[in-house]
Specification:
The protein has 7 helices and 7 strands, in the order αβββαββααββααα. It starts with a helix and ends in a 5-residue tail after the last helix. It binds manganese (II) ion. The site of manganese (II) ion has 6 residues, from loops.
């Protein structure tokens, strides 16, 4: 039996970190795969991330139905983003959905969101753009059922970021700390790339494909004393685990 209580606390803390860094605002969410049962995941009830507490965390099946059917608390509409990614990508253990403004230009133009920063190596690849209109026509753009979710999860491919046209993105990580840092640095990468495209008249030096896969000292799991970034993110948000 894993320490479910500690993981629940970490997930609540991750919500506050993402809010503090401006990755999420009133909307957006982060989940973690259940440590004792890979067919379930943990996610807050419908709440702004900066207010999420451990008691808000619920368990869901991969079809995004609640494990406890009697729990009538309000739930995020877009939880199929999480369930569908866990269903299709067994190596992924944490998922973030956000509407970070910096990434939006890359969802509505043909300019690819491509890693340019060493700290964005976690993206693993150029972020594909998923357009809900391609398969589902005119919708409210929300990933509100499992057909939407599975189509999005398929678009993720081998990378860790999939952009959602006119909406935001979904980020996948092997741990909570990995997903949080990938979400933060994807947003920062988007901001810096946009600036570089402007001052460089479109000429930018991207990370080489081999630089995205070269082994490095960055700890993907994001835990332990070697991960200063994770410690700093926690401290800045006033989170202690
Ligand atoms: Mn959304």
């Amino acid at each position: 039996m894993s320490d479910l209580k500690a993981l629940t606390r970490e997930l609540a803390g991750a919500n506050r970190i993402l809010a503090h860094e401006g990755v999420v605002d009133a909307y957006g969410h982060i989940s973690v795969r259940h440590p004792d049962d890979p067919t379930k995941y943990l996610l807050s009830v419908s709440k702004s991330p900066e207010f999420v507490e451990p008691d808000d965390i619920m368990a869901f099946n991969l079809d995004s139905t609640a494990v406890d059917k009697s729990d009538n608390r309000s739930k995020y509409i877009e939880r199929p983003i999480h369930g569908s990614i866990y269903e299709m990508h067994p190596e992924i253990n944490s998922v973030v959905h956000n509407h970070a403004y910096d990434v939006i230009p890359f969802t509505i133009t043909d300019v690819p969101l491509r890693p340019v920063l060493h700290s964005a190596r976690r993206m693993k690849d150029i972020a594909p753009v998923w357009d809900i209109h391609d398969k589902f026509g005119d919708t409210d753009l929300l990933v509100s059922n499992n057909d939407h979710g599975r189509d999005l999860a398929q678009s993720l491919g081998k990378g860790r970021v999939v952009l959602m046209r006119g909406h935001g993105c979904a980020i996948a990580g092997i741990s909570i700390a990995d997903a949080v840092q990938t979400a933060v640095y994807t947003m920062v990468n988007a901001r810096i790339l946009l600036q570089a495209l402007m001052i460089g008249n479109g000429q930018v030096k991207y990370l080489h494909p081999g630089e995205l896969t070269a082994p490095g000292s960055q700890n993907e799991g994001g835990k332990g004393k070697h991960n200063r970034a994770w410690e700093t993110l926690m401290a800045r948000a006033g989170v202690s685990l």
